[in-house]
Amino acid sequence: MVQRGLKGGQLRLLTRKEARDIHLASLEVLEDVGMHSPSEKILGVFEKAGAEIDRKNRRVRIPQHLVEESLRKAPKEIVFCGRNSKHDILLEDGRIYFGLGGTPVPYIRDVETGEIRRPTEKDMAEATRVGDALPNIKFIMSIAGAFDVPYQAEYLHEFEVLFNNTEKPILYSCPGTYAAQKVLEMASTIVGGRDELKKKPILTLYSETVTPLAFSTTNENIIDFAKAGVPFTNGPMPMLGGTAPMTLSGAGVVSNSENLATLTLSQLVNPHTPVIYTCWATAMDPVTSRCSYGAPEFALGTSVLNATMAHYYGLPSYGFGGCSDSKLPDAQAGAEVMMNSIMAGLCGVNLIHDCGYLAGGSIGSIEMAVICNEIIGMVSRIVKGIEVNDETLAVDVIRAVGPEGHFMSQKHTLKHLETELFFPKLFDRTSEVTWAKAGKKDLRDVAKEKAKKILKEHFPEPLPKDVERRIAQIVKEAEAELLKA
Amino acid sequence: MSRESIYEELANSVLSFDSDKVVQTSKKALEAKLNPIEIIENGLAKGLKIVGKKFEDGELFLMHLVAAAEAVKKALSEVLEPELDKSKAERKTLGKVVIGTVAGDIHDIGKNIVAAMLFAAGFEIHDLGKDVPVEEFVNKTKEVKANIVAASALLSTTLPAQHEIVKALVAQGMRDKVKIMVGGAPVTEEWTREIGGDGYAENAVEAVKVAKKLLKIQD
Fold first, then answer.
1. Domains, chain A, ranges and CATH?
2. Model pTM?
3. How many whole angstroms separate alpha carbon B51 and alpha carbon B65?
4. How far is CA A304 from CA A10, A14, A41, A320, in A?
5. Do residue A414 and residue B189 have CB atoms under 8 angstroms apart?
6. Tens digit of pLDDT for each residue in A391-421?
7. Measured between beta carbons, which residues in chain B are less than 8 angstroms from residue A412?
8. pLDDT band at residue A432 under the 50/70/90 scheme
């Protein structure tokens, strides 16, 4: 049965009129400025639909009617599937789901030693298994890249690791048309064919346009996924004052323009292709030039702008939660992750990713992912909010107990206890005495113990042997082909 | 209905946290000619012990402890104690405990849980209630020849009353005849040592262990 996630979206900092202003500004940008495209294939799709193509400058200017028609065609509701259907999640207005990691991370914080080092296929498999085990993680990306395989075939190896180590829905990248074709072949092998894959999309493509306002040839993968009828999302990250105007709304216009361009591309290729919308504006740290994942503007840009525009279009959305600029799971990481997660939750972003991402996406941490699982529990409780009705107002109970009494043994208390309260699994609420007796543990140590326990105990249901072999074969053959080329 | 299944029903009624049900089941057990001591020992106390264990394991919470304790207390006072008085039967006990919330303090929920858990473990409980003056602790201890005096305080301003009880017992020459346990949110091991008390615990389940240890009772 499909999971129907908790509904966020209570926090609306922008009005519908402001959303419309961003929309209109984006239409103007797409029609007048347009998108650059080195890809002839992408230009060809727009040309066929009647868009104005400037071949000399490789620029496509997209008329607003094409964008508006495409917005109408994109589905408003998507079921994102796991290879085990108990993990299927319904993406629609405001329902929130948190996900492990993002795209390949260049470093991992070793769970055993704390050393920051290059990750391997084995690290990725372990991280994926932890994500598969954590109950508040509903979809899987990665907190470790496979850096010990030939880079030409990295994404294929990574998809193989993902398919083998989780039963939950997978959102990941495979740049370019060749990788996209191979990944679609792998996924079809698992579900039993292309038609089945369309009905049961066990993956969503993550593509990325080049901000500001440029396609790259890697975005041709959107055409492949559109043809296959499998969902995709496009996630450019315009940075204030760098690759976008210095203002959040200006960056929002850039981001929205690129996303409307990819959405239009997909609907022109194959009407009703499922699109998971994004509108992200991020802060470039003006000292280091790094994109800051813990900046308050990051939360405004990736949650408020994102959810506002997704809600305006009625499209499912994808954003950020469990990420931080800190290099280790410390107080900074806790604060930044809570800020991002609670904003995404209250704004009602559907897919909230990056749990376990440190150093602005440079370091993955399994302990941090375990801590994120706890933070998600707290955020979910806040998003659930306060119920007000006769039963919860409890006047009869107050009358029965009266002044100077207590409510501990009331039937009403026991009835509501476990649904009204969040019960921490990781965070410590014991007294200083009990805490000291238990060894004065830091949260990081507790998370590490939990991570190691999961790694020892949790193994997802493996793929059927023949499917596993077939997928390994696809990767092996593709790798040989890629290395020859 | 067999004796065993009635005991089980009694224990289960405690785990329903419904005082009416516990009262009813206790009445039914008496009607089935079960002896009140066995009803307590093999039924209600057993149920309370299960609740305590589940609390310790994190499956149940404080509210369950309180609800179970109150339900058993109600069944005792309304149904079982009158029968015990009639039959003059006495429960074998691990020891006698005089317990109360100290003078100036009306917070008795924690004290009630401790009393219930000690009762479930097999101690004879003399509950003095709340806002209990020092003399009353001392007099009752003398009267029943208590093995343990347990004094609860929730406020840092009523905490000194625990010290007064210790001093009074010393002054009366009773200090070596009785163990003193103190409890309540502001109480620590340091405080217990400082005032010359014998035992302190973080929660009611721990308190039973401490009480047994003080009286050198094997688990």
1. 16-70 (no CATH), 76-384 (3.20.20.480), 390-420 (no CATH)
2. 0.92
3. 7
4. 11, 8, 34, 11
5. no
6. 999 999 999 999 988 999 999 999 999 999 9
7. none
8. confident
Beta bridge partners of A3: A89
Whether residues A414 and B63 touch (CB distance < 8 A) is answered with: yes
Ordered domains of chain B (ranges, CATH)? 3-87 (1.10.1240.10), 96-214 (3.40.50.280)
Mean residue pLDDT of chain A comes to: 97
B112 touches A at CB < 8 Å: no
Q: Do B18 and A431 touch (CB under 8 A)?
A: no
Q: How many CB atoms lie within 10 A of CB B90?
A: 9
Q: How far is B64 from chain A (nearest CA, A)?
A: 7
- The ipTM of this complex is 0.86
Cis amide bond preceding A212, omega within 30: yes
Q: Give the per-residue SS3 of chain A.
A: CCECCCECCCCCCCCHHHHHHHHHHHHHHHHHHCEECCCHHHHHHHHHCCCEEECCCCEEECCHHHHHHHHHHCCCCEEECCCCHHHCEEECCCECEEEECECCCCEEECCCCCCEECCCHHHHHHHHHHHHHCCCEEEECECCCCCCCCHHHHHHHHHHHHHHHCCCCEEECCCHHHHHHHHHHHHHHHHCCHHHHHHCCCEEEEECCECCCECCHHHHHHHHHHHHCCCEEECCCCEECCCECCCHHHHHHHHHHHHHHHHHHHHHHCCCCCEEECCCCEEECCCCCCEECCCHHHHHHHHHHHHHHHHHHCCCEEEECCECCCCCCCHHHHHHHHHHHHHHHHHCCCEEEEECEEHHHCEEEHHHHHHHHHHHHHHHHHHHCCCCCHHHHCHHHHHHHCCCCCCCCCHHHHHHHHHHCCCCCCCCCCCHHHHHHCCCCCHHHHHHHHHHHHHHHCCCCCCCHHHHHHHHHHHHHHHHHHHHC
> Above pLDDT 70, what percent of chain A?
100
